[in-house]
């Protein structure tokens, strides 16, 4: 049996990912923007280059463009062929989002395609748990300008605030291949605090609620890698029936209110 390359794991899910995955709350994006602008202003300039690492289909890169406006250059670094192709189709010449002016290039977190000291922001959204993080942190320090920022951001479904989310996670744990809802319980703050050259810690958590239709909830579930072993085991028809029954038990047959918390970790390059 061949080993799946993690960088290509989402190739077959790119369409679902682009269609059903959420963006990020404005409060978290505003926090990133203010932090980056404060660091660059202290050195007499503005944001020049923003790098989105593990950019996927471009959801987080588009969020950066909306938050920062038209001036900074934005590069999305994505190793996955299917994800990058989907991002490029949305933003390429003649595409419906050409005005977003985002460039997507092949690359990895552990070997960023950027020169030393050129970036105002290196961000990983929904991606850092896949990385060789010590290598990524070293690369982030290398490419950041003095005063530039590294940002780790992730949307997590919040089972503590939502019985529906709690039961959904239990379903995945029961039927998945060793899946645990705690798979992203990584102390990113402590890791970043140990990185030489980074300081000015800013850690936050933003709770929010996403409202979506039942079909979109099922599409969101199918866009995840942890659901794929369940699909192989149970089949899509049974999974859809099980998820609709779950929604019915929680009174969400016409509208689903999905509790999230967005966790954000910011650090600044000191010198």
From TrEMBL:
Record domain Methyltransferase type: where: 51-151
InterPro entries: Diverse_substrate_MTase, Methyltransf_11, SAM-dependent_MTases_sf
Highest rank taxon of the organism: Bacteria
Pfam families (alphabetical): Methyltransf_11 (PF08241)
GO BP: any one term: methylation
UniProt keyword terms in alphabetical order: Methyltransferase, Transferase
Molecular function per GO: methyltransferase activity
CDD domains with a match to the protein in the record: AdoMet_MTases (cd02440)
Family from the record: Belongs to the methyltransferase superfamily.
Protein name, as recorded: Class I SAM-dependent methyltransferase
